[in-house]
Amino acid sequence: MKSNTPDMRDVIVEFQGVAKRFGTQEVHKDITLKIPRGKITYIVGPSGTGKSVLLKEMIGLIRPDKGAILLDGEDITKMSEKELLLLRRRFSLLFQQGALFDFMSVFDNVAFPLREHTKTPPAEIKSKVVNLLTKVGLKHAIYKMPGELSGGMKKRVALARAVILHPEILMYDEPVAGLDPIMSSVIDNLIYTTQQQFNITTVVVSHDIQSILTIPDYIYMLYKGYIVYQGTKEDIKTSDNPYIVQFINAKKDGPIEVA
Amino acid sequence: MVLFNKVGQITLSNFHSLGKFFLFLANSTSAIIRPPYRPRLFIGFLDTIGFGSMLIVVLTSAAIGLVMGVQGYLILQAFGITYITGGMVAVSMTRELAPILAGLMVTARAGSAMAAEISSMKVGEQVDALRAMAVSPYSYIIAPRILATTVVMPVLMSIGLVVSLLSSYLLVVVILGVNDYMYRQYVDLLLSFSDYVKGMIKAAVFGFILSSISCYQGYYSRADATGVGIATTNAVIWSSVMILLSDSVLTLILF
């Protein structure tokens, strides 16, 4: 996939000194980062370092204790829930476990954003949903209920639901975790082509080394509440940053402690 | 000192919970009044809450009607005025027992289900998914349930009332042989239409209370399997307690 070095002066989302604590656990101590507009940014790091929390903070599902999160220069941490609801129309988030509505069929889950936020005619909704489900290899499961699907299938349905509205900012929380290598490649390709086709700002939380080395335009690494590395995928290959080197090479020894 | 600290902490925690509940009520009421309205969800819940609870309301109302009939008959027999039994049963069922019974049965059948469903949605991050998709959970999850329960409760109460009056009539008139004409005369004499309207008001209020409490317990439950159990139990306990407490207040206001 072609290199696409981002222009860090054209930023859509910016974290400024964000801190977040859950009880005694300090998840974010001082997070400062910039998400470039229209590019693919990966957030990587060991499990339990608050990568998913970061995504949720970005759309105001979780409020930080300290710091600011700017969306096009406007601080979303100061917004009311009502203002946030309007703002979230610009976003879409693929949850780690899919978060499909278990009282709706696969078709209704994927059609949900269209029905809620657009006046798309039913025939067009059906064609869009079928088209997307075909792309993620789930056309045969269109009328199944989420309870009848495997974890990987749920994730693919959730992916279809996340991309159906072509939002301005698309966020994926571990999109390929739990998928087989072939399906991971299909999903990676879908993430890449969706971004290229619609120029969507894409933020991906991932552990998948293969994806990290091929897809992102920019990468941040999170560890113990701080950003410990940032750079392009080309930078990673030549970097001597001990955190990213240990992570990419999956080494036991290094600054990242194995809990 | 330790005791004072404990009492202080408990008091503060209770005030915090109460404040959270009233905020939840304000958001829910606002979601009921303001668009977007969700008629399909509302009708769906009318069906699941109304039809789902009907059998249990009918069965318990029939049993209570019989019990009230036989107890009333036995007491009034001592005074030789068994023909008043119908009137007595009708008044007590309409004013008090039918709304309370419907409230408690709907709590057991639908209130517990509401708490469990919403709590499970939290566990599966479905509530967050709604928020992430710019859909208010109050508008999508809470408002249709509260509105449907409030609307369906007077209907269930009316059905329960009819069944209890029929079962009491069958026992007292058909089986125990009290004069049919006198029995009906005293029902007409003692029971007024305003009693029925007030009973319906009570039922609607109970519906609002039980659905608000059940939804609140689900919405603010811990997002794990234990949380679902705790939410369901709390929903049933607090709804039942609040139905009985509010009944006292409503009785003082309405009658």
So how many helices of chain B?
Answer: 8
CATH architecture of chain A: 3-Layer(aba) Sandwich
Subunit arrangement of the protein = heterodimer
The CATH topology of chain A is Rossmann fold
Classified by CATH, the class of chain A is Alpha Beta
Question: How many β-strand stretches of chain A?
Answer: 10
The shape of chain B, in one word, is elongated
Tell me the structural class of chain B.
mainly alpha
Range of helix content of chain B:
over 70%
Account of the 3D structure:
The complex is a heterodimer of chains A (259) and B (255). Helices cover 35% and strands 24% of the residues of chain A. With 259 residues, chain A is an alpha/beta fold. Chain A has a single domain (11-248), classed as Rossmann fold (3-Layer(aba) Sandwich), CATH 3.40.50. Chain A has a 6-stranded mixed beta sheet, with helices on both faces. In chain A, strands 2-1-4-5 form a 4-stranded antiparallel beta sheet, with helices on one face. In chain A, a hairpin with a 2-residue loop joins β4 and β5 (74-75). The longest helix of chain A has 18 residues, at 181-198. The radius of gyration of chain A is 18 Å and the shape is globular. Chain A starts with 10 loop residues before the first strand and ends in an 11-residue tail after the last helix. The relative contact order of chain A is 0.18. With 255 residues, chain B is mainly α. Chain B has one domain. Chain B has 8 helices and no strands. In chain B, α2 (39-77) runs antiparallel to α3 and α7 runs antiparallel to α8. The model of chain B has no long low-confidence stretch (mean pLDDT 95). The chains are: A alpha/beta (259), B mainly alpha (255). Chains A and B meet through α2, β6 and α3 of A and α4 of B.
